[in-house]
Amino acid sequence: MYFTRMKSIVLPIHPTTLSIIRSLKWGRMYKKDPLNGKFDILYHPTKIQNNINKLNKIGDCDDHAIYWCTNMLRGGVPKLCKKTWFSFYTMRKEDGSYASHAICVYTANSTFYFADYNIPIECKSIKQAFEISSKQRKASFICGYAIEVTSIDLDYTPKFGKGILIL
């Protein structure tokens, strides 16, 4: 992520979750990583913002998730959330194949939510976020990992804390 940082780009302050969704164009600016996703790149939030500014494709699910995490911790006054986790999980699809997906999980007012391309959905835990997100994709949750984003540096680089393995 560090290598895609763009020093001249400023991230806007998003006052609401709807503002974040609108800037990400409801997921319509999705772009697969190179080699059909086999070469996975996590873009820096400033690279994602630059793509948004230029109306270019943004990136895949992990890019959407890190943009959510970054902006949830920076957003509005007060911040839009208390805690946020950059989260990813593996699921088994109806045809028996496996896939992975990344989402932002956060807490606001002691309630968990998760977000990717649409309005955040309330859930009871990070595990339930993975389960609901899997069901949205007609799949069954297998396992996941959530890494807390503890802070955002002045150059908009997310700082990671402890991770949680969820089975």
Helicity level, as a percent range? 10-25%
| Percent in strands | 25-35%
How does the overall form come out from the CA principal axes?
globular
Structural class: alpha+beta
**CATH topology call:** C8orf32 fold
The Rg value, from CA coordinates, equals 15 Å
Helix segment count? 4
Largest sheet: 6 strands, antiparallel
Q: Averaging pLDDT over every residue, what do you get?
A: 94
Strands, count: 6
The CATH architecture classification is Roll
Oligomer: single chain
For the record, give the distance between the C-alpha atoms at the N and C termini, rounded to a whole number. Answer: 27 Å
How many structural domains in the coordinates?
Answer: 1
Query: Mind telling me the CATH class?
Result: Alpha Beta
Strand order in space, largest sheet: 4-3-2-1-5-6
In short:
By secondary structure, this protein is an alpha+beta fold. 25% of the residues lie in helices and 32% in strands.
Could you walk me through the main structural features you see in this protein, from its secondary elements to its overall organization?
The chain is α+β, with helices and mostly antiparallel strands. The protein has one domain (2-166): C8orf32 fold, CATH 3.10.620. Helix content is 25%, strand content 32%. It contains four helices and six strands. The chain has a six-stranded antiparallel beta sheet with strand order 4-3-2-1-5-6. It is globular, with a radius of gyration of 15 Å.
Task: Reconstruct the topology from this structure.
Layout (H helix, E strand, L loop, with lengths): L16 H7 L21 H9 L7 H14 L8 E11 L4 E11 L2 E5 L5 E3 L2 H11 L2 E14 L5 E9 L1
Antiparallel strand pairs: 1-2, 1-5, 2-3, 3-4, 5-6
